[in-house]
Amino acid sequence: MQTRETAIAGLAVADTDLVSDHRGAFSRYYCSRELAPCLGERRILQINFSLTRAVGALRGLHFQYPPHAELKCVRCIRGRVWDVALDIRRGSSTFLQWHAEELSAENRRMMIIPEGFAHGFQVLEENSELLYLHSTSYAPETEGRINPLDEKLAIGWPLEVAAMSERDRSHPMLEDEFKGVIL
Question: What CATH number is associated with residue 94?
Fold first, then answer.
């Protein structure tokens, strides 16, 4: 497992090797020792799974406010998605910039998204499955969300949006969500 920083400080990507032979294959999906530079003292406290059926379906953008802000490691275990992390850290030199990676079962890539980022993704292959590792348990009272179609973000989603939950479609635009807290 090799990690690399992105152009946004704190946001990293892990690439995982695959060892194959006539019996099949083996790949490490998580290693606290190898991910220590990204994890620091954090521990993984919760693991979630999602299945999204339709190509073009969009989920996000989600985050948790402090004191339940979380580091999130996201890996695609079936199919392909275009995974996006948006920097919402006030005072960051990359505030409101986003970074995207194609995650797939084939490339075994994982986004390591620290506290202070919103996360979302678009499905590129039907029946895509994601595995999420979280440093904090879900706390609905501190959930934050931003509309992934907000034009101010200028996220270049690769496909036309084919499906979106009513809840995600009704996420507030930037100024509505933050009400002066961050913007």
Answer: 2.60.120.10
